[in-house]
Specification:
This protein is α+β, with helices and mostly antiparallel strands and about 425 residues long. It is built from eleven helices and 23 strands. Strands 1, 5, 8, 9, 10, 11, 12, 20, 21, 22 and 23 form an eleven-stranded mixed beta sheet that branches. Helix 1 crosses helix 7. The protein is globular. Bound molecules: zinc ion (ZN). Zinc ion binds next to helix 11.
Length: about 425
């Protein structure tokens, strides 16, 4: 990650603090914690369609024996030796999977459980904020125990949950089924989007856990594991940037609607109350001092606000839109439905722009190709994963019936 423009944008927007870049620990600010919370809430709300979602968090210290029963091979975690032989050794925030499964069993919960606490990993070399970190936060991890045989259908439901969640953040995605992680999952889905420059990158993973894990966890049925991290917000920052700074999708923005008007402007209070279901902020500005109004608006825009309404010095009301940035005349005090329609228009424009970028880079650059099962298995085409749902296409190698795959000459990407 040489280009850390996205990080500067997040710093300028007040989501994370500057400095520490490369240390692998991103210091979040209050406003960024709110954005991360809304990111998780959006996901949890979508996941609610699959089953009643429980939320939990696990302690910082976990028993090393319980961790290593499930993950015997990982060396990149932090361990803490007990001061006395008779006491257990610990691992520091190493994983949520075994703890979530334990929680589900103890609480006899029929549905998914979500934990969001961070994970600690030893880091070689320097990190990249939110991409490659020593303290990965938030680390959103969902686990769901389902009867044997129901896993594939439930995994398909989570594919849709993830795609809808990321679309709400203006991030278009493709889902790939891959064998590259077969030791981990019987079926592995990777939710893939692209960087601003078009290179594909993995946004989320969803697995039907492989038998050795199920055995170690004492699970007799199927086990679904879904995970993503704060990297999602780095991708949002890469894609949704205009000359005013970060334009957050309305689902995430701390302030959805900024209002710039002189103190006590007639009708203002009544209007603000009518927008109660939206996150609004009114900034009072002297109507005849354009510079102050402008500065107040710039502040709102830089911190990610998608939409502003302002009373201009000539007495007219204007709406300030983004993606792209422009002003338009508006009737004073538009009703809440009109304002909501403005916000969905903005969200749609952002998603469309990012989707165009994904199509140009991934699909038109020939990374998506038809491949048949035989050629994929024999490695005659450097397949990274099969696109799900299945899209029939002729094999580029042998012309037999096959389906669309994502190919990667350079092998695995992250
Ligand atoms: Zn073929």
């Amino acid at each position: 990650m040489r280009d850390i423009l996205y990080h500067r944008v997040l710093v300028d927007a007040g989501l994370v603090a500057g400095g520490g870049s490369g240390s692998g620990i991103t210091p979040w600010r209050g406003s960024g914690l709110g954005v991360a919370r809304r990111m998780v809430d959006t996901f949890v709300e979508e996941a609610g369609r699959v089953g009643p979602v429980a939320r939990t968090e696990h302690p910082f210290l976990n028993r090393r024996d319980a961790y290593e029963r499930v993950f015997p091979h990982y060396a990149n975690i932090y361990r803490l030796r007990a001061p006395e032989e008779s006491q257990p050794d610990w691992v520091l925030r190493a994983d949520n999977l075994h703890l979530n499964v334990e929680w589900l069993r103890q609480n006899r919960h029929q549905g998914p459980v979500v934990a969001t606490g961070g994970l600690l990993r030893q880091l070689r070399g320097s990190g990249s904020p939110l991409f490659r970190e020593r303290y990965i936060w938030p680390a959103v991890q969902l686990n769901h125990l389902v009867p044997a045989g129901e896993g594939p259908a439930v995994l398909e439901s989570y594919r849709q949950v993830l795609e809808r969640t990321f679309e709400a953040f203006g991030l278009p995605v493709l889902t790939l089924a891959t064998d590259a992680l077969s030791s981990y999952g019987d079926v592995c889905h990777l939710t893939v989007t692209c960087l601003r420059d078009g290179r594909p990158t993995v946004l989320a993973t969803a697995y039907l856990m492989a038998a050795p894990y199920r055995r170690a966890l004492g699970v007799s049925g199927d086990l679904v594991d879904v995970g993503f991290t704060g990297k999602v917000l780095a991708l949002v920052s890469m894609h949704h940037l205009d000359r005013g700074g970060l334009g957050l999708p309305s689902a995430l923005a701390p302030v959805q609607v900024g209002v710039l008007a002189p103190q006590g402007a007639p009708g203002l209070d009544t209007w603000s109350r009518s927008l109660a279901g939206l996150r609004t902020r009114t900034v009072t500005v002297a109507g005849d001092v354009p510079f102050r109004r402008h500065r107040a608006e710039r502040g709102l825009v830089r911190t990610g606000t998608p939409l502003t309404y302002g009373l201009w010095p000539d007495g007219t009301w204007r709406v300030g839109r983004r993606a792209p940035s422009r002003y338009a005349p508006t009737t004073p005090f538009p009703d809440a439905d009109t304002v909501r329609a403005e916000l969905s228009g903005y969200d749609r424009r952002q998603l469309d722009a990012a989707r165009t970028r994904l199509r140009h880079s991934v699909e038109r650059d020939g990374l998506v190709r038809g491949v048949c099962d035989g050629c994929a298995a024999a490695g005659r085409v450097p397949v990274f994963g099969r696109i799900v749902p299945h899209r029939p296409a002729r094999c580029v190698h042998c012309a037999a019936p096959g389906s669309d795959h994502l190919v990667s000459e350079k092998g695995r990407f992250y």
